[in-house]
Amino acid sequence: MFSLPNSSHNKIFFTVIGYLGLAIWISAALVVTELRHIPLFQLLTIAFVLSFIVSITQVCIKKSWADLKQPWYVWAMGLLGICSNIITCASAFRLAPSHHADLIIYLWPVLVILFSGFLPKEKLQLKHVLAGFLGLGGVSILILGSTQGGAFDPSYLKGYGLAFFSALSWSSYIIFLKRFKNVPSYMNGIYGSIGAIVCLIGHLLFESTVMPSIHDCLLIAYYGCFVLGMGYILWTVGIKKGNFKLLTVLSYGNPILSVALLVLFNHADPAGNLGLACIMVTGGAIMAKGA
Question: What is the sign, positive or negative, of the torsion defined by CA atoms of 281, 226, 194, 57?
Answer without folding.
Answer: negative
